[in-house]
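Weekly sync, protein design subgroup
Attendees: M.S., D.O., the rotation student, P.L. (late)

Item 1: inverse folding check
M.S. brought a backbone from last month's batch and wanted to see whether the design step gives back something sensible before we order anything. D.O. pointed out we never logged the input encoding, so this time it goes straight into the notes. Structure tokens as presented (168 positions):
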């Protein structure tokens, strides 16, 4: 009898965690505004010349610490890119659901395409950061992410939205 209650409790807990994992991203995005990523700073983190300079002018312990900070900063930039594109997807979905005029529908579909590309590259970039030491081409992929984010930002401007510019 007690074992049955324990198993039922574990099942309910697992179901609650599963539902939270599904609903949590949508709840975190609700009511948020997209924030811009400073692409120049992001690209500076990817510059191999700067990494080489740090490698030559720091101790190995300091260099490893700087690499950890670099990865955290890159992850924060990629998460912001993914979050902004998710918000744009929600906005475009709202426009498409309202059955707008054909030109609005075309603009929303183009925005969806740019936002999906950006989100895909950003989330895959996070995977590269997690497993980058095992996978070749990390820097090239992260640079492509910046290009897709720039295209996404231009798509926002072209659709009547304001450009995302980094706040300082």
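Designed sequence read out in the meeting:
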């Amino acid at each position: 009898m007690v074992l049955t209650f324990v198993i039922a409790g574990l099942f309910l807990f697992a179901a609650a965690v599963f539902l939270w994992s599904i609903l949590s991203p949508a709840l975190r995005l609700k009511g948020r505004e997209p924030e811009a990523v400073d692409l120049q700073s992001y690209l500076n983190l990817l510059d191999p010349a700067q990494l080489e300079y740090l490698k030559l002018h720091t101790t190995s312990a300091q260099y490893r610490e700087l690499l950890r900070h670099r990865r955290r900063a890159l992850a924060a930039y990629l998460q912001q890119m993914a979050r902004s594109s998710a918000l744009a997807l929600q906005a475009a979905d709202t426009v498409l659901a309202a059955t707008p005029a054909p030109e609005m529908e075309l603009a929303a579909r183009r925005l969806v395409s740019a936002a999906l590309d950006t989100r895909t590259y950003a989330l895959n970039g996070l995977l590269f950061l997690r497993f980058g030491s095992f996978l070749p081409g990390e820097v090239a992929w992260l640079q492509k992410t910046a290009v897709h984010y720039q295209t996404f930002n231009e798509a926002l401007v072209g659709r009547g939205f304001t450009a995302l510019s980094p706040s300082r």
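Discussion: The chain has two domains: 1-30, 35-158. Helices lie at 2-29, 39-45, 48-57, 60-97, 102-131, 138-158.
Action: P.L. to compare against the previous round before Friday.
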